[in-house]
Hints:
Elements: H1 2-8, H2 11-19, H3 23-32, H4 38-81, H5 85-93, H6 100-117, H7 122-126, H8 129-148, H9 152-184, H10 189-244
Helix pairs in contact: 2-10, 4-5, 4-9, 4-10, 5-6, 6-8, 6-10, 8-10, 9-10
Amino acid sequence: MLQEITNAAPGGDAAAALSQMGADHLINEMVSNPGQHVVQWVVSLTLILMSVMAIYWIVVNLLKNANLRRRGDAVVSTFWETTNAQDAIRYMEEQPRSEPFSKIALDAAQAAAHHQRSEGSRLVESLNRSEFVDRALRQGVTRESMKLESGLTVLASIGATAPFVGLLGTVVGIYGALIRLGAGGQASIDAVAGPVGEALIMTAFGLFVAIPAVLGYNFFVRLNRITNNKFDTFAHDLHDFFATGSRVGEVSVKR
């Protein structure tokens, strides 16, 4: 069948067919005949929207992680290097709202202070200082961990669905090409190659959108795992500090 199609097409028709397989020709066809390319328009606009969303969340998470890595270690080290607990807490209060380590430390400090003010009450009888601080730290770590995951669901969804959205455009494009081929009764390379090539562009477009989203998702999941480990380590040290008055490995800390 392929040999018959090739033999039926003169050289000029083959060259013309190849010129119709590019993205520019597909765009021209979609603009000049929008009624015949409704599905292609829907698929293209959907993939463009997905691409914009993926780029947005990749940039947002890159900036967020870069800022966290730049400030996080400095905040933690400054907290432990400050010999006076009140000065350390005051330093944490001065940090931006987006800085997670300071918010975890403030949760522990507020829990310890609240427990101390409630001495003699039923709160102190039901929960000792260590348990009360531990609950506050768990809530703080969970809250900050959830903030790290913003946009990851969008990236995962785009990475999983974008190829199929592009494939939908390809299937509809090939189906339309076959319908036109059957209606025209012409089995030549210029009648088949152009429409099929244009349809396959949709699949390539879907992969072009999906691959950066998948890579970005995997990259940020790895970074978040490292950051969550830092949260847990810091929270463990904070628990020891506010529950006993000193970090593990320290003899004494000036309160």
